[in-house]
Each structure stands twice: as structure tokens, then as C-alpha cells.
Automatic annotation (TrEMBL):
One Pfam family here: HTH_1
GO molecular function terms noted in the UniProt entry: DNA binding; DNA-binding transcription factor activity
Protein name: DNA-binding transcriptional LysR family regulator
Keywords: DNA-binding, Transcription, Transcription regulation
Taxonomic source organism: Phyllobacterium myrsinacearum
Length: 300
């Protein structure tokens, strides 16, 4: 049996098109013609020996084999890029200071630190998990080199919008603890201490919908917020990213809850021209975030 060797260049075109939701956009981003991209996708299906796309309305959707291919393509490209970085960037030295929102502390951070340390063993990373206001203050004052934080307004100087993430109501997994709306009873909210962008969004949405509410639990940390929500002390508002197994998102309109907007996720830099170690870490962060992007998030 002839061994199949997938073309990494083809796999990169494939993943880029899926991430952008449009292979014409992928052609523009990769500097190729649409006919060249089409030829690459045909080559991929030939190598796979099975259809990876199926018609969906006016567009294309992945088949089951396509979904499997996408997962392996990402892993192959990650390993390729990590190897290239380790070989060509092994002389990077110094240190870089990174700040992350609490939502990413247990999910994204270990992946980033592990990948960066393997590729650049001579670089030291100092990581800080904190609230939005503190992260932005530290990066603008130069006490952090990079910070990943929520933002519901235009990006700040030296920052870029990574994606737009949907906010969602979050309640306990136990159905017996989920709040059900009744006349005159205010909605119990579990929230982080002010200032909190998501807390403000929740209150504004409830006020616009004419739904009475009360602050039933206030926490200085995300861990306390998850514990209170899991115990049924109140509903909270967050994004689908980083939700623990003890809580679950509540569908829009369920229990009469109002729709919620999206919130921006920005990568902030201390300087317009980053040092090589900072630029490399930023690249790894942006790449790693693709795995955490919810299906209905909008890439910037």
C-alpha cells in the first residue's frame, strides 16, 4: 500500500480557508489565485481518498472526514511551525512579561508556555493572570509586554482585535438549581467586582428588557464566580471560552433572558515595535487562540 504524504502547503490553505469561512479570502491572504486554491483543495481530496467538502446552501461544509482532516491538519502545521521556530529562532534570549484574563489562565496559558519554552529555552516568561483593568494598566505603563484582555470599545493604541466573542448567560449544570422567571421576582446575579465589562453588559441588557435583577453574589475572582453559579446562587454572564464543567451556557431567550452582544478580545502590546521575543510570543498566542474560538465567534 502506497503511503500518503500530505502537502503542508495544501493543509495551510485548507485551514486558512476554514478559519476565514471563505476560500476566496484565503486566496487573498495567502497571495494565491482562486484557481490555485481550488486546485490545492482538489489535491487534498485526492490525497485523502474521500470527499472532505459537501454542499451546504450556496457554500461548502466539511464532511465528517473533513472535520477529522482539519484537526490533523492543525496538529501537523503546529508541529511544523514549532520545529521551524526551534531551528531558526533558537538564539532568541531574554525575557517577556505576559498578562492574561482569568478566562484563559487554565486553558490557553499552559499550551502557550509549553510551546514557547520548547522552541525558545533561553527565553524566560513571566505570566500574570488578572482582571481586565489591571492588565491594561500594566501594559500601558510598560510593566507587561503583552496582555490578552476583553474590550467592548475600539482597540487601544498598540493593540489589535483578535476576535469578537459572543457573551452568554451561564447557569448551573444541575437543572434543579436553574433560576426560572416568575412575576415580580428579580433575577439573582452572580458577578465579579466592578469594574467588569461583562457585568455591565448583563445589567444593561436586563434593564433594556425590563427585567428586575439583584446582585446575589459578588466575587473578586473568576473561581468564586464559578462556585456561586454552580451552587445556584445566581446566573452570571461570560463567554463560552473557559467554562468549567460545573456550569453551562443558557440558550438565548431561555427563561425569558435577553439576547446579549459580542465582546472584543484584544491583544495589547506595550510598544508599537515589539522586541523579537515579544513578537514571537504574540504569534504563538494568536495561533493558539484559533483552538479556543467558539463556532459563532467572528475573527477580526
Amino acid at each position: 500500500m502506497r503511503r500518503t504524504i500530505f502537502d503542508l502547503d495544501v493543509l495551510r490553505t485548507f485551514t486558512t480557508g476554514v478559519d476565514l469561512g471563505n476560500f476566496a479570502k484565503a486566496a487573498d491572504k495567502l497571495g494565491r489565485s482562486t484557481s490555485a486554491v481550488s486546485a490545492q483543495l482538489k489535491k487534498l481530496e485526492q490525497q485523502a481518498g474521500t470527499p472532505i467538502f459537501q454542499k451546504s446552501g450556496r457554500g461548502l461544509a466539511l464532511t465528517d472526514a473533513g472535520e477529522t482532516m482539519l484537526a490533523y491538519a492543525r496538529r501537523l502545521l503546529d508541529l511544523n511551525d514549532e520545529a521551524a521556530s526551534a531551528i531558526h529562532g533558537i538564539e532568541l534570549e531574554g525575557w517577556v512579561r505576559l498578562g492574561l484574563q482569568e478566562d484563559f489562565g487554565e486553558t490557553l496559558l499552559p499550551n502557550i508556555l509549553g510551546q514557547f519554552a520548547r522552541a525558545h529555552p533561553k527565553v524566560r516568561i513571566e505570566a500574570r493572570v488578572a482582571r481586565n483593568a489591571e492588565l491594561i494598566e500594566r501594559v500601558t505603563s510598560g510593566r507587561l509586554d503583552l496582555a490578552l484582555a476583553w474590550n467592548n470599545s475600539a482597540p487601544l493604541p498598540n493593540s489589535e482585535r483578535v476576535m469578537e466573542v459572543p457573551m452568554c448567560w451561564v447557569g448551573p449544570v444541575n437543572p434543579n438549581l436553574i433560576w426560572h422567571r416568575s412575576d415580580g421576582e428579580p433575577l439573582p446575579l452572580a458577578a465579579l467586582e466592578a469594574p467588569c465589562l461583562l457585568r455591565t453588559a448583563a445589567i444593561n441588557a436586563l434593564d433594556r428588557a425590563g427585567i428586575a435583577w439583584r446582585l446575589a453574589f459578588i466575587s473578586p475572582s473568576l473561581g468564586g464566580l464559578w462556585a456561586a453559579t454552580a451552587a445556584g446562587l445566581g446566573l452570571t454572564i461570560r463567554t463560552p471560552i473557559g467554562l468549567p464543567k460545573t456550569v453551562q451556557p443558557i440558550l438565548p431567550g431561555e427563561n425569558g433572558l435577553p439576547m446579549l452582544p459580542k465582546i472584543g478580545l484584544d491583544l495589547h502590546r506595550a510598544d508599537a515595535e515589539s522586541a523579537p521575543v515579544t513578537a514571537r510570543l504574540a504569534s504563538i498566542i494568536l495561533h493558539a487562540l484559533q483552538e479556543f474560538q467558539p463556532a459563532d465567534a467572528k475573527a477580526a
